[in-house]
Amino acid sequence: MSAADMGYDAVMAKKGEVMKSSVGIDYDAFKTGPVSFDYEGMMTKTGYDLERVFEIQSETAVGNTPLVELKNITALVRAVSNPGKGGRIFVKDEAQNPSGSFKDRRASVSIYEAWKKGYPGVSAATSGNYGAAVASQAAKKGLPAIIVQEAFDGRGIAQPEIAEKTRACEAYGAEVIRLSVGPELFYVFLLILIETGYFNASLYTPFSVLGIETLGFEVAKEIKEREGRFPDVVVATHAGGGNVTGTGRGLIKAGASDTKLVAASVDLSGLHMASDTDFNRKSFTTGHTGFGIPFATWPDRADVPKNAARPLRYMDRFVTVTQGEVFYITQALAELEGMERGPAGNTSLAAAFAVAREMGEDEIVVVQETEYTGAGKHPIAQLNLAKRMGIEVRRGNPKENVPGVRIVIPEDPSQIKAVDVDLERLRKSYYKNALESIEDREKITDDEIRFLAEDTKTTPDCVREAVGLK
């Protein structure tokens, strides 16, 4: 390949071709219109049903993690709730997976697919736990792995949580390419796929989302076996949408269609994820609104042509919590339940704490994941970086929290509140993004309207009204 062929414009022009060869999916075959596509057909065409995914995951010790009732946290909820209020909180301890998070479920099917199809290795662009999961599952299959991370700001200051994940990836034998924040990540990732012929273990393929279905299924099945009924509420940390999507699909496949699925993100409003200035002004690298909002309102902004992670199809409610509230609940989990876990799962736990206060004492809420913690993922490392970046850190009312300016850790658990995100507003943003390429709205077909309704868990009439069609 010549130098000209490896230039930015030349490589980006090959995106579609590279994605098709590196994932093995002909996305064009599922297109049914300018916006719509056969979503369920794309998921089914992979050939992996729920039973097969369970078999694949059992071969690499993924899944079947403990379900733990947090009796002391529940008691704390009831101590600050109105009489008769305070639902029982359970947590699915996904930190017990091989690399320490639910991302092992997500990586397992992708790595199996790469191994089955004879790819020489796997690669993923991720700064989160997923990189460690890909590296771990690849190690089990004897495949080399390359992980591409955004790890530094322009001054070379590393985000400690990402540094911890670099260490984990390298421990599992992966090569890690660390970049500063900026648009070159996707270009570098494409170059790697072209030069190596590796499988693209994207977070957004059907393989990735199918792997998470077992998590939702296990949560529903295990609560049903223990309590004789399905959970009333499941809370899932929301970032790129795969966690909510896979969990929602698993709950439905278990028969728990009436269980409410609540998405939870850390509020980082006002901070730009691609900004060099803001990169180290956020104390969370995932599970925040910087990913959660854009991926909900336009899922196909992903690194594959059609994203299998479509969170608005499955979420019943979307709430945010503050960084300080997550730090508080992280310490509470350690001190009251003897479980020291990382920030992503504890984002859901902070939200579940607030949601449980609204529920009756006989109702059940499940936090569907925990993640491992380590030096860079610990609150002390994150708060030290925040102070170094000039961010005020103090105790007080979390309502005074300002992302990138001030982290306020609650003085009292009664101060933990979940703030609702307006789902109708998200849906309207989604429609605007989806229909941007269609100039004449009158030419939108009924099939397109039905797809938009399914993709946003609403009705065709609601879509027509929202986009101004009779």
From TrEMBL:
Q: Name one GO biological process term.
A: alpha-amino acid metabolic process
Keyword Lyase carried by entry = yes
Q: In the UniProt record, does the keyword Lyase occur?
A: yes
**Pfam families in the record, alphabetically?**
PALP
The molecular function GO annotations come to: lyase activity
- Occurrences of domain Tryptophan synthase beta chain-like PALP (ranges): 60-367
Enumerate the UniProt keywords alphabetically. Answer: Lyase, Pyridoxal phosphate
Question: What SUPFAM superfamilies does its record include?
Answer: Tryptophan synthase beta subunit-like PLP-dependent enzymes (SSF53686)
Report which superkingdom the organism of origin falls in.
Answer: Bacteria
Cofactor(s) needed by this chain = pyridoxal 5'-phosphate
Q: Which InterPro entries match?
A: AKP_thiolase_beta, Cys_Synth/Cystath_Beta-Synth, TrpB-like_PALP, TrpB-like_PALP_sf
Question: Per its UniProt record, what NCBIfam families does this chain match?
Answer: ornith_OrtB
Listed name of the protein: PLP-dependent lyase/thiolase
Q: Which organism is it from?
A: Candidatus Zymogenus saltonus
Q: What high-level taxonomic lineage is stated for the organism?
A: Bacteria, Deltaproteobacteria, Candidatus Zymogenia, Candidatus Zymogeniales, Candidatus Zymogenaceae
